[in-house]
Structures are given as C-alpha cells and as structure tokens.
C-alpha cells in the first residue's frame, strides 16, 4: 500500500526536475537578460521587440530578451549577488562601478566600450505637479517651503533619487555661492519635506500619481511624460526648473556572465544597436534624450525647453567615483542630513 | 475548546434572562460594528479587486490572464506550491510525530525552531538565502563552480517558500497528536502491526482532517508569499516572477486591469481556501477544534 504511493511521488518529483532541465536548455543559447532600472520598462519593451526583429533579419537567429526592473542600486546588488545578467542598463555609473568593484564581473574599462561614455541616452530631472500648479512650484527653492510635500525615492536604493538629490545640491550650491554648510541645510530641508521615500523611481511616481500623495514629484523627465500619458494631461502639469542635472544612464556588458554563457556577440550587438537610427528613434519616442539626435527625424525628437544642465563630471561633484561615497556612502552627506519623519 | 466550560455553567442559569445577556440595542450595535468592520476591511477590498479586474470588460480580463508573462507567473506559482506543500507535509508529519509521540532531549528547542519562520520577517528569510547562496555568499563560489543556480532561479524561490511555510502543517498536527496520545498506536503494535502499518492505518487516519487543514493554509501562503520570494527572485519577467510579484510589476506599469486580474486569481484562491476551511470545520469541527490550541 505504501510503496506505490511513494513511487508515484518520486515519479512526480523526477518529472518536474526533468522539466526544469529541458526548460533551461531550450533557451540557453538564444536568451539574454537585461537587468535595468525602474523607468526604462516601456523603453526596453519597445526596443527588445525591435532588436529581436533586427537580429533575426541580420543573422537568422532568434534571440529572446528577458527583462528585470527595479531600483538601480537594488538591481546592481542583485547582479553582485549572482543575478545572471548579460547586460546592465542602470541609472548611473556609480551602480555599474559597484558591480565592478564588488564582484569583478564587469571590466573596469567598461565606459570606453560604447560611444558617449557608454550612455546611449541622457535624461534630466524635472517636477511633476498637480494640475494648475496650486502650490506655485517653479524652482528648487519652492520645494523647501513649509507645508510643501515632496515625493522622491530613497537615494540609497534608487538611481533616479540620487540624480534628484544631486540636482537639488547643484541648485543650492549655485544659489548660496558654494557654502557647503548652507547647501547641506537646503537639501536637508528638502528631504524633511518628503513624507515617504520609495525604493525606486517608479514607486514614487505611483505614490504621487496613483495614490495622490504629495504636492510635487521630483521625477525623471521620461517618467513625468509617461505619467501624463497614463493618467491624463488634465491631472498634472510638468514644470521645468531653470537648472537641473544631466543624467547619463549608462549601459555595460557583464563580461564574466556573457563569457560563461557564450552570449557576448549578441549582447554587444544588443547594446551597440541602441546607437543606431532605429535605436535612437525608439529612445526619443520614449521621452529620453538621444545621444545622437542628428540620427533621429526632427518630428520624433522630444520638444523640451532649454534649461541649464550640470554634469556629474562638473568640478562640483568630480564624477561618480568621488560623488558616490561622499554623498551616498555609509555616513555620507545623505546619512548626515536625512532623519526619517517621526 | 470552550464547550465543556459553557456546559458546566449552564445549571446556574434559570433561562436566557435579560439579566445575563446584553440588551438588544447593545447586541445590535456589537453586531453592526463587527459586520461593518469585516465589510470595510475584508469584503470591500475583495469586491474592489474583482471590480478593477473587470473594469475594462471580460475580454480585457481574459486577455491579461492569457498574456505569456502572466501565464508563466501562474505556472511558476503552481509549481512552487506543488513542490513546497508536499515537502511541508513530510516535514510536518515527521516533526509532529516526533514531538507528540516521543520524549527526547531538545524537544522544547525543536518546537521553538518550528515556530521561527512565524516570528522572522519574510524579507529577512529571503536575505538569509542571499547570504548563503548568493555569488558573494557562503556557498556561492562552490555553487557557481558546479554550475548550480539556486538564487534568482526556481530553486531559490522554492527554498524561500518552504522556509516561510514550514510551521503550517506541523503546528496543526502537534496539538492534535498530543491530545490523541499513544493509546491507538500501542494497541496496533500489540496486535502485531509494524511501524509503517501503525503509521499508515492508525496515526494518519486519526489526524487526516487536521492535516488537510494545515495543507490548505500552507498552500494559500505558498502561493501568496511576497516578501521572501521578492528578495530571491531577481524579477525576471516570464521566468522568476510568481503571481504576487507579477501583480506588483503590472501595477507599477500602470496596468491596473492586468494587475487586478492576476490578483483576482489569488483572491479566488483565498476564497476557495476559506470555503474548504469552513466546510471542514462544519463537518469535522470537533476533531479540528483539538488543533486550535494556539
């Protein structure tokens, strides 16, 4: 009586494990995994489809691109912990450098592999406010006023949040003539106005747009436009502050993983094609700023006002390698100024 | 559990007089509060889930459920439950058997250990597996060298689920088996049955309803677990997303219909569990009551 039952159970177990095996092998040579950050979901959904068609036409091979999205810092952490990414397309250089230094899976010279410091698109940080801008928010100093609720994600886990922070820092620095104590106070006040810090940029957008919390969302330019598309332009207004940051979300091949899986050729083609006419057009249509706008038809280019954009490589920040530990490391400036709301 | 006490008090009451029960308005008020509370916190959210899921019609609903990523999430969730629930049955029965029927050193410690997953936050449970099996973790190097993928793959999700659902079956069976004592088993053994026969024909039938109850709860949690699974999943669409994770992804993509369509399946599972549980309680109330020691 007992034995047939156990045999059945064993049979079922073997059957499931065999299924795993075949599943793993069936896609093994034609699948790449793109580990990306939050707001690129729509961009890569469109790009992956186009690239798969392009690759099929060019080589006759079928490639499946898998996507994983989350806060940029959290995604880098997952790759360090062994998430089998072929390529990473993260929010900032600092997160890719973390993979380089903590896991050695990416070669240190990754920034030279693709054009424009391996940033096929740029973006900036702008404000999304409630329709009619009831709080009259036009510039960064409007965010530190009493009674203004600011929605921004956590710079510890979100790349977008770090750009938000740095944009505020750049504004305050220019405004108080480079007095760092005053800059710190300004940014501290801004975070004191934040009732909640989500882990990723998309979480913050949902908090602001869907849950209706806060007066202003500090957002990726593309995410702000996407929120307008999704929730209707009659609910929100986009506000461009006079100064902001030039965000350059970079891409990189995860060398150790592609060499182990034998997917280097397709992974390199995948990232390289981002710089093509087709890739740049998809980028522009998803409200990112293409690195090579001359490749894109003028009607597809985003119509964005001219504002002053400060680069992370500006002497104020001295590049990500310096800015990351100084501002966001353990005990860094952010830790000093941010006290969670009581 | 409460039955014997009520019976012992009964002789002291002449009848159901107004002196010993609450006044009618008080009773009505209490009942209204209870129903309003349940309505707002349980029924309303449930209705909203189905309402949102069907907001754009049945067509959109079925379309979101037939989306390849949604189907893969459903398949993965079923697979994870199909592996972790049987594992829990084996573990739960053996642990309950050992604790209820034998005296040994460290028994209290074992009982505490079984309860551990209840007291640890699921996120921590997930992180423990990252520290253990992650590329930087204790066993990460060895696993990589042997080409074994645990973290950010199905085995990691199964492990995390098994961890958080560990106590369900054991916790149902331990009080039940303790209450039943060793009498039946001793009788079977003295009549010449061997160990397996005793277990199969005596112990198991004695606890079958408690076991089924534990399995139901375990299954519901296995399919619904979010925190621990989220940490070890890697969030690869169509590959390592379970249903709860897929709900979050769709919601973050502003796809409310899709998110709530998948959520409605989970809610449906909860309802089925609830109905089965109620049926079990109605039919085998006395036996199950014995398991309600905690």
TrEMBL record, chain A:
Top-level lineage group: Bacteria
Major place of residence: periplasm
Subcellular location: Periplasm
Organism: Mesorhizobium kowhaii
InterPro entries attached to this UniProt entry: Sulphate/thiosulphate_BS (IPR034408), Thiosulph/SO4-bd (IPR005669)
This protein's UniProt keywords: Periplasm, Signal, Transport
Keyword field contains Iron-sulfur: no
PROSITE patterns: PROK_SULFATE_BIND_2 (PS00757)
A Gene Ontology cellular-component term: periplasmic space
Signal peptide coordinates: 1-28
Matches recorded under Pfam families: SBP_bac_11
Keyword check for Translocase: no
NCBIfam families: 3a0106s03 (TIGR00971), PRK10752.1 (NF008022), PRK10852.1 (NF008106)
GO BP terms, alphabetized: sulfate transmembrane transport
SUPFAM superfamilies associated with the record: Periplasmic binding protein-like II
Name under which the protein is recorded: Sulfate transporter subunit
Family membership noted in the UniProt record: Belongs to the prokaryotic sulfate-binding protein family.
UniProt GO MF annotations: molecular carrier activity; sulfur compound binding
TrEMBL record, chain B:
Protein name, per record: Sulfate transport system permease protein CysW
One protein family per Pfam: BPD_transp_1
Quaternary structure, from the entry: The complex is composed of two ATP-binding proteins (CysA), two transmembrane proteins (CysT and CysW) and a solute-binding protein (CysP).
Gene Ontology MF terms: ABC-type sulfate transporter activity
Keywords tagged on the record: Cell inner membrane, Cell membrane, Membrane, Sulfate transport, Transmembrane, Transmembrane helix, Transport
Subcellular location: Cell inner membrane
CDD domains: TM_PBP2
Any one annotated GO CC term: plasma membrane
Signal peptide: none
Alphabetical list of PANTHER family matching this protein: SULFATE TRANSPORT SYSTEM PERMEASE PROTEIN, SULFATE TRANSPORT SYSTEM PERMEASE PROTEIN CYSW
PROSITE patterns assigned to the protein according to its UniProt record, in alphabetical order: ABC_TM1 (PS50928)
Source domain of life: Bacteria
Chain's role: Part of the ABC transporter complex CysAWTP (TC 3.A.1.6.1) involved in sulfate/thiosulfate import. Probably responsible for the translocation of the substrate across the membrane.
Membrane topology: Multi-pass membrane protein
Source species: Mesorhizobium kowhaii
TM annotation in the entry: 28-55, 76-100, 120-143, 150-170, 254-276
């Amino acid at each position: 009586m007992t034995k047939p039952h156990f045999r059945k159970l064993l049979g079922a177990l073997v059957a499931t494990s065999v299924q795993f095996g075949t599943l793993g092998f069936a896609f093994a040579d034609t699948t790449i995994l793109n580990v990306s950050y939050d707001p690129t979901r729509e961009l890569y959904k469109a790009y992956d489809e186009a690239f798969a068609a392009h690759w099929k036409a060019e080589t006759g091979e079928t490639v499946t691109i898998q996507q994983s999205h989350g806060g940029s810092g959290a995604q880098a952490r997952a790759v360090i912990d062994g998430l089998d990414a072929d390529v990473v397309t993260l929010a900032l250089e600092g997160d890719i450098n973390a993979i380089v230094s903590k896991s050695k899976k990416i070669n240190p010279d990754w920034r030279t592999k693709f054009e424009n410091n391996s940033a096929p698109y740029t973006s900036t940080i702008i404000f999304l406010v409630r329709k009619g801008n009831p709080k009259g928010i036009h510039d960064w100093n409007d965010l530190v006023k009493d009674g203004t609720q600011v929605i921004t994600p956590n710079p510890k886990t979100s790349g977008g949040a770090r750009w938000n922070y740095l944009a505020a820092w750049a504004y305050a620095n220019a405004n108080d003539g480079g007095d760092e104590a005053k800059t710190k106070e300004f940014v501290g006040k801004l975070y004191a106005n934040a009732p909640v810090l989500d882990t990723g940029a998309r979480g913050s957008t949902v908090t602001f747009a869907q849950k209706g919390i806060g007066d202003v969302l500090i957002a990726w330019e593309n995410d702000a436009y996407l929120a307008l598309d999704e929730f209707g332009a009659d609910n929100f207004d986009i506000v461009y502050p006079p100064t902001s940051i030039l965000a350059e979300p970079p891409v990189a091949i995860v060398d150790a993983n592609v060499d182990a899986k034998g997917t280097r050729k397709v992974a390199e083609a995948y990232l390289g094609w981002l710089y093509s006419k087709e890739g740049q057009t998809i980028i522009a249509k998803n409200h990112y700023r293409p690195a090579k706008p001359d490749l894109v038809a003028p009607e597809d280019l985003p119509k964005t006002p001219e504002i002053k954009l400060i680069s992370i490589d500006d002497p104020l920040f001295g590049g990500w390698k310096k800015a990351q530990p100084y501002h966001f490391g353990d005990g860094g400036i952010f830790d000093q100024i941010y006290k969670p709301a009581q | 559990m409460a039955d014997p006490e009520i019976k012992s008090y009964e002789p002291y009451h002449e009848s159901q007089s107004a002196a010993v029960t609450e006044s009618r308005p008080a009773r009505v008020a209490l009942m209204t509060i209870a129903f309003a509370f349940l309505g707002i916190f349980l029924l309303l959210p449930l209705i909203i889930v189905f309402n949102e899921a069907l907001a754009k019609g049945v067509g959109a609903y079925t379309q979101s459920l037939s989306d390849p990523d949604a189907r893969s999430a459903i398949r993965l969730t079923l697979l994870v439950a199909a592996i972790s629930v049987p594992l829990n049955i084996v573990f739960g029965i053996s642990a309950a058997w050992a604790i209820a029927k034998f005296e040994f050193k460290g028994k209290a410690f074992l009982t505490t250990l079984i309860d551990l997953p209840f007291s640890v936050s699921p996120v921590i449970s997930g992180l423990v597996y990252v520290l253990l099996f992650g590329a930087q973790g204790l066993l990460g190097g060895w696993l990589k060298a042997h080409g074994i993928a645990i973290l950010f793959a199905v085995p990691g999700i199964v492990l995390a689920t098994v961890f958080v659902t560990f106590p369900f079956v054991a916790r149902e069976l331990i009080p039940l088996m303790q209450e039943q004592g060793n009498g039946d088993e001793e009788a079977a053994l003295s009549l010449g049955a061997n160990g397996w026969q005793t277990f199969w024909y005596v112990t198991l039938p004695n606890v079958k309803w408690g076991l089924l109850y534990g399995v139901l709860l375990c299954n519901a949690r296995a399919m619904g677990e979010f925190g621990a699974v989220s940490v070890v999943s890697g969030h690869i669409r169509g590959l390592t997303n379970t249903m709860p994770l897929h709900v979050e992804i769709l919601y973050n993509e502003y796809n409310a219909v899709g998110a709530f369509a998948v959520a409605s399946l989970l809610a449906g599972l909860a309802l089925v569990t609830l109905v089965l549980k109620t049926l079990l309680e109605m039919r085998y109330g006395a036996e199950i009551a014995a398991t309600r020691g905690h």
